[in-house]
Amino acid sequence: MNISRILLVRLREIGDVVFTTPAIRALRHQFPDAYIAYVVEPHAAPVVAGSPHLNRVIVAPRQRGARGLAADLSLGRALRASRYDLAIDFHGGPRASLLTWLSGARERIGYEVAARSWMYTGRVARPRALRARHSVENQWDLLESLGIARPDRRRDPVEMPADAGVAAAVASRLAAAGVASDDRLVVMHVSAGNPFRRWPFEHFVQTAAALARTRRCRVVVTSGPSERDAAERVIAAARAAVGAAGEDDTARILSCGEFSLAELRALLDRAAVFVGGDSGPLHIASTSPAAIVGLYGPTLPARSAPWRDPARLALAIEPADLPCRPCNQRVCAPGDFRCLTLIQPGPVVEAALRCLQT
Fold first, then answer.
1. CATH number, residue 96
2. Which residues does the chain have with pLDDT short of 70?
């Protein structure tokens, strides 16, 4: 089959889109002259917006009800008019399946899912049970029929190029906050997409205060756009904790305002360490040189740890011997989110200090 036009579909979460970037690069290598387009939702679009391997990024806002269906049907007509030879649905959800089918691509590859498998011409089995297998490998299963070799962390890392203009603006913000060229930055992300991945507030405060006492270390606290108040509360409480100890290190905990996804990516090129839960920002950090301390509660590092060259340090902190892990993150069986509350600040601080010494 001659493949000259390829459509990729991956909706929803930032981290899941990051996990497709090795496959994008592999497809470009396999089909160097092909036109490759990617359908993504707005909040994750910056991950692939600067990809050198894509010809077009199609942003598909999510709308509810009849208006949303009408918008998807309109997008489907536009995709069909583009006459794709191959469409790959990395998602498998109802909307992604529909858009893949509506594209009319001659070859449509997706997961074998109940009630929707008929939308694909090629189907790949996907067990319903959560497996200790990395998401990059799970998504790569869709490429096997194309003769593409299995992924390797060194050869096929995740990627998100930083924008030079954005990087310059971030550098100016850091300089205005008093960050010197030899300061080592710890970026601490204090929010998550759902409560199942949110480390307790007081644990972040203790960790930020402890790291602020480290010579030449500055802590930048970031959050999602809807949780800026949470970041400011962590900053204020950590500064108070440092000041109460009679130490003059409160200025080491920085308040630099909100960072967009592109700005966060640029910030992480300047960072020595990233500390945060298993959410989108951790996976953005995976595309940077920064060392990573990841906090894994309901999820497993085997499924979602940074997919990059093992020479770049990435440490996983997780609770031991909890029979309820991993979970589907819909209901906390014990009711107290113990998978995260059992992770204490001490091991996280120790891991971050180890990263700073490398």
1. 3.40.50.2000
2. 1, 244-250
Q: Which of 105, 133, 130 is nearest to 120 (CA)?
A: 105
Say what the pLDDT of residue 250 is.
Answer: 65
Number of domains the chain is built from: 2
* Residue 354: exposure state from Cβ atoms within 10 A (0-12, 13-18, ≥19): middle
- Taking alpha carbons only, the member of 113, 134, 115 closest to residue 125 is 113
Q: Provide the pLDDT for residue 293.
A: 98
Q: For 145, which DSSP code?
A: G
DSSP string covering 42-90:
GGGHHHHHT-TT-SEEEE-----HHHHHHHHHHHHHHHHHT--SEEEES
Q: Which residues contact 87 (CB under 8 A, 6 or more apart)?
A: 6, 7, 8, 9, 100, 103, 105, 107, 108, 109
Nearest to 204 by CA among 104, 277, 284: 277
Range of the domain at 105: 5-146
Query: Is 247 found in the same domain as 111?
Result: no
Digit-coded pLDDT (tens) for 301-354:
999 999 999 999 999 999 988 999 998 888 999 998 999 999 999 999 999 999
